[in-house]
């Protein structure tokens, strides 16, 4: 079972907090881009069974719906596909893009993920978003007319944001009745305009204990509303989890197609990592992605780094013997991990210290 990711790298503008592989271009050669995507699909084994497809970016809702339809049709014809295949498209709430939800539905998209980010206009202005708060609200309502599965993103723990303000905004978000929400604390990523502004002390973000309060409130509020967390930043009704992202966190195989897209696949008994050129113009000329074999220790690290983001944790099988046993006992005793015979499961306390736990479990190991 394999997930397939298609990266559409183009945006109308670059958000100051974003470190994704996204690019602004005065015009996009849609025909050449589509031709390359279809060509790259042909380089993979057609006997693979695809369980999910995710159009990410960038801003995939900028692509012509006809291009999305061509890619979806190619996937159905070329690969084996599951009967309940999940096909997600990320979209911005700009009016021009939201007006095409019907066309994307007809193209085969069956799940939509909207980058609302906030319903507060001042916060949207700070985040450099080009849509308005009203457009975000209208886009979600419009998406619900066409898609049974709708998710949207919000960013919180913003400068000067209070817990009460976030509680109110989250209550408003829940009023739409979507089955899934992705809720991210603002992170200052290296190399972004926000990092430079942060270093110049143009704004402040919550300190660690304040961030923990924001997160704990989010978990409690969402759980009470029937959308508990299943991953650090993702909340859903039971059965409405994003299957595609679960494939990443469970360290299952996935194909990455498009500029800068990564893949993880078992090939000839070995786990390989594929990566394409990040610059769109270079990727268009690229024959094949770079392929590297992932050694055993790196596989353990990746399994832990991805899997311990999940509230259900990861199976101990094939991994428990490769971690620091003393560190594991200490983490259980200190309440960072749950004492479970078959799974490595983080507590809420452990989720808040995710990176440190992973490094501790691998401490002093070859």
Describe the structure.
- This protein has 366 residues and is an alpha/beta fold.
- It has two domains: 2-246, Aldolase class I (TIM Barrel), CATH 3.20.20; 295-366, Orthogonal Bundle (Arc Repressor Mutant, subunit A), CATH 1.10.10.
- 38% of the residues lie in helices and 23% in strands.
- The chain is built from 15 helices and 15 strands.
- It has helices at 30-41, 65-78, 95-98, 101-106, 121-127, 133-146, 163-174, 193-199, 208-224, 243-249, 280-285, 296-307, 325-333, 348-351, 354-361; strands at residues 2-8, 49-57, 80-91, 111-117, 149-156, 180-185, 229-231, 234-236, 253-257, 262-267, 270-275, 290-293, 314-315, 337-338, 343-346.
- Strands 7-8-6-5-4-3-2-1-9 form a nine-stranded mixed beta sheet, with helices on both faces.
- The longest helix has 17 residues, at 208-224.
- It is globular and about 55 Å long.
- The two termini are 31 Å apart.
- The mean pLDDT is 94.
């Amino acid at each position: 079972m394999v997930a397939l990711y298609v990266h559409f790298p183009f945006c109308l503008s670059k958000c100051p907090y974003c470190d994704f592989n996204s690019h602004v271009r005065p015009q996009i050669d849609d025909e050449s881009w589509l031709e390359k995507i279809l060509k790259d699909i042909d380089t993979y084994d057609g006997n693979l069974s695809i369980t999910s497809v995710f159009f990410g970016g960038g801003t995939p809702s900028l692509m012509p719906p006809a291009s999305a339809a061509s890619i979806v049709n190619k996937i159905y014809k070329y690969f084996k596909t599951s009967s309940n295949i999940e096909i997600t498209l990320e979209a911005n709430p700009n009016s021009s893009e939201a007006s095409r939800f019907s066309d994307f539905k007809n193209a085969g998209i069956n799940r939509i993920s909207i980058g609302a980010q906030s319903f507060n206009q001042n916060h949207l202005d700070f985040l450099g978003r080009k849509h308005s708060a009203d457009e975000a609200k209208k886009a979600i309502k419009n998406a619900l007319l066409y898609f049974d599965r709708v998710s949207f993103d919000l960013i919180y723990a913003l400068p000067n944001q209070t817990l009460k303000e976030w509680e109110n905004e989250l209550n408003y978000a829940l009023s739409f009745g979507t089955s899934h929400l992705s809720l991210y604390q603002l992170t200052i990523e290296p190399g972004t305009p926000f990092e430079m502004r942060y270093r110049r002390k143009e704004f402040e973000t919550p300190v660690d204990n304040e961030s923990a309060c924001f997160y704990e409130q989010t978990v409690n509020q969402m759980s009470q509303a029937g959308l508990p967390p299943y991953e650090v930043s993702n909340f859903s009704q039971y059965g409405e989890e994003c299957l595609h992202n679960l494939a990443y966190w469970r360290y299952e195989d996935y194909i990455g197609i498009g500029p800068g897209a990564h893949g993880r696949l078992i090939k000839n008994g070995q786990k390989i990592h594929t990566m394409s050129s990040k610059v769109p113009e270079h990727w268009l000329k690229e024959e094949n992605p770079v392929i590297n074999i992932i050694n055993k220790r790196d596989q353990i690290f990746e399994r832990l780094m991805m899997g311990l983001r999940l509230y259900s944790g990861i199976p101990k099988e094939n991994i428990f013997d490769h971690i620091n046993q003393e560190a594991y006992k200490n983490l259980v005793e200190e309440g960072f991990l749950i004492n479970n015979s078959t799974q490595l499961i983080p507590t809420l306390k452990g989720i808040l210290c995710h990176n440190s736990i992973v490094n501790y479990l691998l401490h002093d190991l070859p």
